[in-house]
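Format notes (please read before filing issues)

Several people have asked whether sequences and structure tokens are stored in separate files. They are not. Every record keeps both together, in the order shown below: the sequence lines, then the token lines. Line labels are part of the format and must not be stripped during preprocessing.
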Amino acid sequence: MYKMHKKPVIIIFLVVLLDQITKYFVVTKMYFEESIPIINKIFYLTYITNTGTAFGKLQQYGSILLIFSVIAILILSLIVFKQKNIPKINLIAFSMILGGAIGNVIDRIFRGSIVDFLDFRIWPIFNIADSAITIGIALLIIHSVFSKENT
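Then the structure lines:
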């Protein structure tokens, strides 16, 4: 493995690990649909599951989403591990997206649905994997907007 590819492996591993540990805690320590206030009226841990995409969208397409998720993981893996001269910020972003996608695919395969638990009450309930995917996409957008390469 090339030196430049160690960082993505670490990022992917940490995202998947944090995602799965937090989901394991929720599944083993909480009742389904239980909601624990962390900051009253602002932030709760609420145990739900969904078969759709991030934030519970497209629930009726669970099986198809698994196939698309695996395809996305393969494509992102090629980008992260085969592309040369990729900007460091994009490599970090793709690694976060890949880690999040792997975390949610693990749920789809082993649980049949995705465990969500981060509940801010003004937004659909989500998880660490969803957060990593969202942050990764935001980094790609920010880099594409502010990159000097695009001017």
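For reference, the curators noted about this record: Residues 3-144 form one domain. The beta strands are 35-39, 43-50, 114-119.
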